[in-house]
Target: ZEB2-regulated ABC transporter 1
Amino acid sequence: MLSILEEIEQYQKDFSSKWEATQREFESTRHKLKAKGMLHRASQTVSFPIQTAICARRATQQLWNDKGSTLTTLIGEIVIALVVGSVFYGTPETSDAFFSYGSVLSFSYGFYRPSSDALASILVDIPVKLVVGTCFNIILYFLSGLATTASQFFIFFLFVFVTTLAVSMVFRTIAAATRTLPQAMAISGFLVLALVTYTGFVLPGPYMHPWFKWISYINQLSYAFEALLVNQAHGTNYPCSNLVPPYPNLTGDTFICPVPGSVAGETFVNEDAWFETSYDYSYSHLWRNLGIILGFLFFFLFTYLLTSELNVNSSTGPDVLVFLRGRLPSTMAHTDLKLKGRVDIERPLVVSSAPIEGNVNEAALMQVDRETFSWRKVSLDVMIKGHSRRFLDNSCGWVKPGSLTALMGVSGAGKTTLLNALAQRMPSGVIQGELYVDGRPLPTSFNNDVGYVQQQDVHLETSTVREALRFSAMLRQPFDVPKSEKFASVEEIIHLLNMDDFADAVVGLPGKGLNVEQRKRLSIGVELAGKPALLLFLDEPTSGLDSQSSEAILALLRKLAAGGLSILCTIHQPSAMLFQRFDRLLLMARGGKVAYFGDIGENSETVLRYFGDRGPRRCADAENPAEYLLDAIGNTNTAKLDWPCLWDASAEAKAVSTELERMTKSFSAWRQGNGSDVVQARQRGAYSMSLLSQIPSVCVRVFQQYWQSPTYIASKFTLGVAGSLLIGFSFFQPGQSILGVQNAIFSILMVCAMFSSLVQQALLIMPKFIVQRTLYEVRERHSNMYSWSVLILANILAEIPYHVVLGVMTFAIFNYTVFGIRSSEDQGLVLLFFVYFYILAGTFAHMVVAPLPDATTAGRVVTILFWMMILFSGVFQTLIALPGFWIFMYRVSPMTYLVGGVAVSGLSGDAIICSQAELAVFQPPAGETCGAYMQPYLEQAAPGTLLNPDATASCSYCPLGYADQVLARSD
Model:
């Protein structure tokens, strides 16, 4: 020992003396490999322009390989443009159209995906944005009837395109500055809400409160919206649709159009004056705003590049186990306390491949029926491009209790296909042949009686090992087994599989949680927890494992077989030691044909004798028998030997057929003596537990998934609470003016704008459900663990508590800041509407994502449906102004009833007090008072109120008297 320490010390001395020279030599060599002009300290070997060109080429290749996503986006934008344009098609060119034009222009920049902007390459993304924007804006612009002069259209297109790029840079910066997608989406969801609120449309500049008005100054959308409006309005006069008073033969300044910006005595309204009075916008700001937007674009481009360089996620290191709080095993109590419940799995504290000792407790682990599973002449035909192709061809064999059978073959021989066909898990194709259990047809409970360990270890990453096993035991063991007994069997399985040290560890994602071997043990444990009475299928259980872990898994299977379980597993090129663990071999050749089925024999003598007698050579003493067999049936040099034909003609094959025939005949004789009633007793329902019994277990798992995902809870509540605070204090006490009432309605609409983010935000509803559904479709559905309807119901129920709490919090923040204190009935209705809103978001998400393949596609669908619901809510375009074809959408949009219900509860009955800008001021005829002049009009149920009836000059008329008149516009 002393000499070793001395050698180490001497090596360190020699190395330290040579270190500086070696480092200089390394740096010099590395610098020679760099391109000319590169800094000596730079880590890259090529210049920045070359790096950019290479990355752009890669991004282009990625975009080309994902053409479907781009086409889906393009088609979606075209559909939205057609819908929005058709809604505003035929808008009359009168003063009533002012609000409609603002609505159209607000939609022109409202459709972008922050997450996709953050992920795409800038250079490759520009032409995509150009194509998508061109299609969208051309359709929207001309279909909605905006100004058709060339200059106005190209100014519109320029501002929309530049603003899209500028806003995308903001989201790129957020993506580059954050480490995870949930972080970026939580920030971007709130940012979108702030940008839209302070654009200037839903909350005009004169009505912005000083504490948040600064947002409009740093908001690119506010400058773009002003430019779009003044570009559309400049130099345009619109005829007034409703003069006050509407008398015939009016002259002088005795009448006025009741629209802000109008002039007494004129029958038209200058749109420039209307926008300046209502929004404080000016045409002189047009090109100034373009410069500001370009400044934002280049500033955030710089921040994006800077954060990309600085925020490099270089967190590397070994995988760690994460335990629930207070569940750290006693064997790990001496580990570094700084890990806070995390244990490095590379440390020799958990030796999961420890030798397996002891016997299987059959009573606790399995309810083995000791029945033989057999199949005869099993074939599989699948239609491919109109032609039938055979994947399995007359396969025969059996798996007896207590035996371990290997299913081997060359690549593409159909090993997994045969395993799926025998397990009744083929998704398509026509299966022919006969499958028996002790010579009788398969019972209806066959899927419950077998376990299937797939090659991919699919587990819920938020559950612990013990929770996963208990879930399987609760739903797969018979309903009459007490819960305590089910949990006791789980503890036996944990001990059997040597999982005691990580039983309370969180599964995690691959690479961040259980390692490969631990996941494989859990996969086997999940199937054993169901107490398979008949058979255990395994698809390449040693895939991805090292030799020590593979030996541990095969030792475990050997132990299970010794307990009476029948095991059939596929395996690819096992070592000689692993091959000896099996009792019987089913060897498949190409085309799904059987090349051998029978005993392996001691030291593989039986199977090697069969192939040695018929093949060109025998297996060498030092050769791996498994590799010899695969080489024999797959080597091109021996391809002239038709091993399937040799097998069909062999005495061994005839013996197999004879044994299968004996099994069938023995059952027929047994049935005649015992009657069919005994056979029916073997049959039972498809599910081990009733539907009502399934709901609690599935609900508990979904609740655990959410509770053990703090990012999910934090993101949901951050968005709901922060968004409500932003909206509440942005529209704080909007006042009783006409625009104040309109702002209050828009505040409700902005709360509804959180709908899309709640539904599709990363790690929120949709992605959570996708994880559950994937697990169900891959494993749990085939095992008849629970019903699909139970999965849907459990996910909806798990969301409701969060939605109720969020609804209450949103009500408390929004109601008292915008509506103030009203009657108990009104406040109760507003509370119910907000709870309904959040529950609607949850159920709507599940409705959309359930039939779709992934959350990305579902997100695109949600975006289209959400904007259609908002568009047809009656706020942007009233029911009366809608084209007849679209009236049905107003009736079916949930937002119609949500916005209308909250608005009526919070505003109905309030009197309107016009602001100075909203008052229609005109002069009465000489010698008349305002009251006398307006009396005929007021007696005809005029909608407004005359404020100074006794005045003889400057009559002040408020166009509306009550908030209900504003609400009535939207029915």
About this structure: The longest strand covers residues 387-399. Confidence is low (pLDDT under 50) at residues 92-101, 109-121, 335-358, 675-682. DSSP finds 37 helices and 19 strands in the chain.
